[in-house]
Amino acid sequence: MKKIILGSVLAVAAATSMNAQAAATAICTGGAAQSASVASGTNFIKNQFNARCSNNIMLVGEDLQNVYQAGGASTKGKSRFGASTAGGGITGVPCASATGCISADAVTEAGAALTS
Question: 75-89, pLDDT tens digit by residue?
Fold first, then answer.
């Protein structure tokens, strides 16, 4: 669980600014441990950075004009986590399935990060 939280925090903290809707982008897909590039663009992310994910971690990020939000979950876990650069704390809620999280859980939590 610490690795999911750390991954979400790092994805949000590494972002360095505009508010159009964008789709959540998969950063880590839940397989083997990996380092994934998060590209800079014309919205909030101004500099490319690498996110490092442990085994079984799914991490998504959403680059909006004025904020970056991220959601994460583990294929072996029962909770999903989200955070954004808009402030507040990291939220954790149960995944949709009692048998483990799926990628949709990370996407859902990324979208909910702005409302927490």
Answer: 999 999 999 998 877
Whole-model pTM? Answer: 0.74
* Rounded Cα distance, 37 and 114, in Å: 23
Q: What is the rounded distance in angstroms from the CA atom of residue 34 to the CA atom of residue 3?
A: 13
pLDDT tens readout for residues 6-32: 454 444 444 433 334 458 899 999 999
Number of domains in the chain: 1
- 93: containing domain: 2-115
CB atoms within 10 A of CB 71: 31
- The answer for residues whose C-beta is within 8 angstroms of residue 87's C-beta and 6 or more apart is none
